[in-house]
Design brief:
Elements (H helix, E strand, L loop, with lengths): L16 H20 L4 H22 L6 H33 L7 E6 L5 H13 L3 E7 L2 E6 L2 H9 L1 H9 L12 E3 L1
Helix pairs in contact: 1-2, 3-6, 4-6
Length: 187
């Protein structure tokens, strides 16, 4: 009779992958409960199933085996990026209200620009940030080229200026060219 010993992968700090997976599951399920606001059997069951699937497939993205200084720096910089983004969303809302009151100022256009961002996560963050800002929608990201719909000249100019790209680059510890991107616009 042969005995087979199973080992659990251990991280350098002694936490097993199972503990990290379970921790992510608990975190995700807690978020599900808080944000769904539904406590019936169906919703709790769906929350359990979804949290378990996501935790199983991507626990190492949420809780890597070792937290490097870079991860902690990115996390703290991202937390400082959020208030700036919310402020930009607020300003863009005011601009959209202005456009509603002055429809003659609406000039829809397609803006194309190349980014210096290297990581996919940084590019997705930039694309989502652009889309969250009223008056602009990221239509496509193809490698380093962004295609964005802007509702006015001012919204297009803010993309050309590149402040959001520089902020995202700072969050993800990436160097960007100090010259703003030069997009092409289509009316």
């Amino acid at each position: 009779m042969s005995h087979q010993i199973q080992s659990t992968p251990m991280t350098p700090d002694g936490r097993s992958a199972h503990v990290r997976r379970f921790s992510v599951f608990v975190l995700l399920f807690a978020f599900w409960i808080v944000f769904s606001g539904h406590f019936d059997t169906l919703h709790l069951g769906l929350g359990l199933a979804c949290s378990a699937i996501v935790a199983t497939l991507s626990y190492d993205l949420i809780l890597p085996d070792r937290l490097s200084t870079g991860v902690l720096t990115k996390a703290s910089r991202f937390l400082s990026y959020i208030p700036w983004l919310l402020y930009e969303v607020f300003l863009a809302n005011l601009h959209v209200v202005y456009l509603v009151l002055r429809p003659g100022k609406i000039r829809p256009q397609i803006v194309r620009f190349k980014t210096d961002l290297k990581s996919d996560l940084a590019r997705v963050t930039l694309g989502n940030s652009i889309t969250l800002t009223p008056g602009t929608i990221t239509m496509d990201i193809d490698d380093d080229e962004f295609i964005v719909h802007a509702v006015s000249d001012k919204a297009a100019a803010s993309l050309i200026e590149g402040a959001m790209e520089r902020r995202v680059a700072r969050v993800f510890l990436e160097d960007t060219n100090q010259t703003p991107p030069r997009p092409g616009t289509e009316g």
